[in-house]
């Protein structure tokens, strides 16, 4: 059995953790409305008596919201969704937000709705509640062609079961594990952008941002969409989150 390698420790003082493509941190809007004048977009809520069923069967993004829909694609998406609901006899519709939803608010909504995350420009991001009063160790298991998996510890109890949690998208071959509030202090073009991973142990590094320890790590297997599992104890309380890097799908 391969030995786990410690990549570093993360702190999460807000109690809400985000795991996402490290290259998209520059897009993080915090509590501000996302600002991309070159690529205007609209966010939608799926509403109606059958909203959850419609969201699940439509299967475009996690949960009952659709984020970052390009303005030029709004009419087509609305038509396709309406037709989907008619075909399946679902009472649901799309309601456009007056303005795009800030990324920090997306985290709050996902956690409150018990959804595994949300999208940023179509790339799946993970978010969840995490212990605020302890360091969260991040480890990786070596595989034949790079890391087989990464794991962030959320508790100390023995693992009794494992559930499929969601999917994580990576376009820049790196992941960031960060407190949701701390991401709002990230200055992508400032000194923090000097975090070079290629020369560090295991191509991972920890930096202090916004009062929290944030970890950036190369996937070692490039880009892809990776399945994520939640390990829980006998009472169903989270023990760890595992990212399967060997099973890109």
Describe it for me?
- A six-stranded antiparallel beta sheet has the order 1-8-9-15-14-10, with no helix packed on it. Strands 6-7-2-11-13-12 form a six-stranded antiparallel beta sheet, with helices on one face. A three-stranded antiparallel beta sheet has the order 4-3-5.
- The protein contains three helices and 15 strands.
- The radius of gyration is 18 Å and the shape is globular.
- The protein has 249 residues and is mainly beta.
- The mean pLDDT is 92.
- The protein is 13% helix and 41% strand.
- It folds into two domains: 145 residues, no CATH class; 61 residues, no CATH class.
- A hairpin with a 5-residue loop joins β14 and β15.
Features:
249 residues, mainly beta, 2 domains, 6-stranded antiparallel beta sheet, 3 helices
Overall structural class, as computed from helix and strand content, comes to mainly beta
Side by side, the strands of the main sheet go 1-8-9-15-14-10
Please, what is the oligomeric state?
A: single chain
Count of beta strands:
15
- Domains (count): 2
> Which bin fits the share of residues in helices?
10-25%
Largest sheet: 6 strands, antiparallel
DSSP strand (E) fraction?
35-45%
Low-confidence stretches: none
CA gyration radius, whole angstroms: 18 Å
Tally of helical runs: 3
Global geometry: globular
Q: Give the SSE order as H and E letters.
A: EEEHEHEHEEEEEEEEEE
- Terminal CA distance reads 24 Å
Mean pLDDT: 92
């Amino acid at each position: 059995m391969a030995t786990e390698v410690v990549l570093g420790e993360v702190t999460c003082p807000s109690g809400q953790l985000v795991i996402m493509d490290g290259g998209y941190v520059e897009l993080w809007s915090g509590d501000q409305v996302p600002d991309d004048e070159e690529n205007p977009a609209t966010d939608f809520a799926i509403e109606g008596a059958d909203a959850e069923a419609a969201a699940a069967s439509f299967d475009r993004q996690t949960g009952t919201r659709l984020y970052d829909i390009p303005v030029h694609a709004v009419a087509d998406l609305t038509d396709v969704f309406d037709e989907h609901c008619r075909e399946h006899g679902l009472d649901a519709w799309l309601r456009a937000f007056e303005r795009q939803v800030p990324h920090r608010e997306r985290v709050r909504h996902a956690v409150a709705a018990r959804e595994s995350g949300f999208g940023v420009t179509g790339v799946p991001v993970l978010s969840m509640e995490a212990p605020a009063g302890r360091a969260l160790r991040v480890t990786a298991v070596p595989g034949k062609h790079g890391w087989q998996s990464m794991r962030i510890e959320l508790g100390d109890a023995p693992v009794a079961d494992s559930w499929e949690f969601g999917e994580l998208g990576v376009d820049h071959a790196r992941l960031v594990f960060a407190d949701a509030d701390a991401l709002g202090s990230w200055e992508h073009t400032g000194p923090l952008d000097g975090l070079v991973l290629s020369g560090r142990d295991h191509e991972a590094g920890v930096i202090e941002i916004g009062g929290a320890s944030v970890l950036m790590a190369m996937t070692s297997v490039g880009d892809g969409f990776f399945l994520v599992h939640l390990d829980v104890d006998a009472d169903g309380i989270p023990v760890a989150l595992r990212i399967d890097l060997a099973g890109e799908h």
